[in-house]
Amino acid sequence: MAALTMAKALNDGLRAAMERDPKVIVMGEDVGKLGGVFRITDGLQKDFGEQRVLDTPLAESGIIGTAVGLAIRGFRPVCEIQFDGFVFPGYDQIVSQLAKLHFRSQGRVPVPVVVRIPFGGGIGAVEHHSESPEALFAHVAGLKVVACSNPADAYWMIQQAIACDDPVIFFEPKRRYWEKGEVDVGNAAHPLFASAVVRRGTTLTLATYGPMVRTCLDAAVAAEADGHSLEVIDLRSLSPLDLGPVAESVRRTGHLVVVAEAPSEASVAAEVAARIQQECFHSLEAPVLRVTGFDTPYPPSKCEEDYLPDLDRVLDGVDRSLAW
Does 129 qualify as catalytic in the annotation? Predict the structure, then answer.
C-alpha cells in the first residue's frame, strides 16, 4: 500500500492496463512527449513508444473518430480531452457514432473506447476549463459514465473502464489531482458501476460524486459538533446509477441531500432526487434537497469560490433538511 496523488494513481493505472494488454492505446493532445497538461500520461510514451502513445492534432472530433475506427479493429483506445469544455467538438462523434455503433451492429461490434475528461472548477481557470458536463453524457443511451473521487478509485476504475467492452466516459476531478490517498494495488477492486458508502452515519444521507466527495466528508466531520451523524455515499457511476445503497441509507436516516458541482437544472442530482423520492417516499421525513452549482455559465475565476458548493452550503442544506 502506498500514498499516491490521484494524478500518479491514474498514471499507474494506465501503465498497468498497457502492460497487461498490448491493444491499449493512449491518444490525445500533448499526451506523449509532454505527458499531458496535468502530466497524467507522463513517461508513458517513453516506455511504450509512439505507436501506443500518440500525440494528436488539436481536433477532438478527429481524436474520437480515430478511436472509434481503432476500436472496430480490435484496439482499446484511451482518449484524453485536455479540459472539460474542449470535449464539444468531439460530442457529435461520441453521441452519433461511439454510443450507437454496438447497437447499430446488433451487438456484433464492441466499441471499447475510454474518453478521459478532467472536469470541474476550483483551479482558478476560465470557462471551458472548469465545467461539469456529465449530465450531457449520462443522458446518452449507449454510454457508460463514471467519476472517480480519490486515488484508490482512480487507480482501479481507469483499469476497469479500459477492460469494459462498452464506451466509457471517465470523469476526473481536476482539483483533486494533487490530493494524496492510500492505494492498495493488491486489493480487490470495487465494482466499476457501483456506488460506495465512504462514511457511515445515522442522521442524514449525503449523496455525491467526483470533487464534492471530499467536501461532503469535511461537512460530515464539521456536523459532528452539532451532534449530527452524516452518511456519505460516493455515487461513482453516473450512468448506470447504482442507487441501492442510497435508498437503503435513506430508509434509515429519513433525509437526503444530493451534492454536485454541476448546475441543478436537468442534472444527475435531479435524477437522484427524483428516483429516491419515488422509491423511498414513505421513509422520507423531508423532501430531497440539492446543493449544486448555479444555473449560469461558469464564472470568472475570481468569482468561483462564490459559485462552487462549499462546506457552508452543504451544512446549510443539512440544516434545512433536518429542520423540515
Answer: yes
